[in-house]
Amino acid sequence: MAQVFTVYNCGTGFNRDRTDELIGYLGTITAGMQAKPGSVTPQDAWMICDGPGSSPRGTNPDTKTPGTGILKKLRGNITGHGWNQNVHDAMEIIRFIHAGSPISVINMAGWSRGAVTCHMLSNAIAGDQSLRNIQINIFAADPVAGPGNRADPSKNTIPPNVRNYLAVVAEDENRKIMKPVKVGVIQTQSEEIGNQRVKVISVPGEHNSSVMRGTPLGKLVWYLAHKFLSKHGTRLNGGIQLSYVEVCECYAGIRMYMTDFRTMHGTTMGMLGRDGRSVNNNFAQHHFWINDHHLSQFAKAFPLMGAAISNPNLLANGGFRLQQELKNMKTNAPWTYTALVKIGMITPPQNTGQGFLKQQYRG
Predict the structure, then answer these.
(1) CA 79 to CA 228: how far, in whole Å?
(2) What is the pLDDT of residue 358?
(3) Does the first or last residue of the chain, that is N or C, have fewer Cβ atoms within 10 Å of its Cβ?
(4) Minimum mean pLDDT among 35-44, 55-64, 141-150: which range?
């Protein structure tokens, strides 16, 4: 069985104590022994690095706390001070474990500068003769390097030893200081590497919309992280698991509150200037689809209605089967059904005995 080691990297100002945020939460449900400095064992399965500028309540059991002291906390928030220390300490732990029990796979998950720390750590591993053959998989939630760091290749590129890379990028964040890494460039470059798979999912909202608990978008992204890590060998106790229908319900919730998400641009440090992001999403202006992932999941959950949304001409041939699918949707996916009604895609049957196909549809 392949030896899998997992590294979590918290975002700026965040740490393991913030379990209402994705990365801190993942640290609470990961199975196996946690790596601790001074007592690292070959059996350790994971570690977590607190974010630059953070000050956790307790003693950091993995690495030196990057935000200890007012000046370090300020430097961490402005420049990312502390993430180089996180990379150094993670490398020391990985080398020790690998020497005693060879690691086959390293999974990483990070948000904001934590996602960029995943880039940095993967490049450090690629440059280490003893570690460079380890396969790496990265889940990156809205990777942001911050001013002064965007031109550094170790922060805005991933090496060939990263086999799978999934990034979730916020479309509506417009603070200049929060410019994201150009994941589209990473995706284009990966096409030249035969065994490297890079996928980018764009979502509405601001920088932290996708990683915080309490919204349909947060639920969706937490599920995507859980699925990604589990697929590549990280053992999780619990977590969020969704069916195709339940994923569609998350997207429907996003669609229902799209106006709210579109006005989320970020508040802190907005006075330093604003500039819209250039996020590639072919469905950014679509009346129902949120992104291509939404379309693909909907096609699996509701194949007939999914095809009809993309091509309303197919409604004429839908007949009884499409009516049954819509009835099933109304019962088992009420948010999806309501979202379609709200945008005028369907009009619910009145008490006339008519089926859905006798009603109005909009292309």
Answers:
(1) 30
(2) 38
(3) N
(4) 55-64
**162: helix, strand or coil:** strand
| pLDDT tens by residue, 144-201 | 987 666 778 888 999 999 999 999 999 988 887 777 888 888 988 898 888 899 999 9
DSSP 282-318: TTTT-SS--SHHHHHHHHHHSHHHHHHHH-GGGGGGT
Helices (H), 170-243: 183-190, 216-231
| Range 4-241: architecture per CATH | 3-Layer(aba) Sandwich (3.40)
Q: Are 265 and 206 in contact (CB under 8 A)?
A: yes
Q: Which amino acid is at 178?
A: M
Token couple for 149: 């760091």
| Contact yes or no for 35/242 (Cβ under 8 A) | no
Q: Rounded to whole angstroms, how far apart are CA atoms 262 and 171? A: 8
Structure tokens at 260: 């709210």
pTM of the model: 0.89
Among residues 337, 175, 349, which one has the least CA distance to residue 253?
337
User: What is the predicted pLDDT for the residue at 120?
Assistant: 95
| Percent of the chain at pLDDT exceeding 90 | 54
Q: What are phi and psi of 195, to 5 degrees?
A: -105, 20
Average pLDDT of the residues in 134-150: 88
Rg (CA), the chain: 22
- Per-residue 3-state assignment (H helix, E strand, C coil) for 323-362: HHHHHHHHHHCHHHHHHHHHCCCECCCCCCCCCHHHCCEC
The pLDDT-based confidence of 298 (bands split at 50, 70, 90) is very high
Contact 98, 193 (CB under 8 A): no
Mean pLDDT of the chain: 85
3-state secondary structure of 319: helix
Sort 316 into a burial class: Cβ within 10 Å, 0-12 / 13-18 / 19+. Answer: exposed
CB count, 10 Å around CB of 222?
Answer: 23
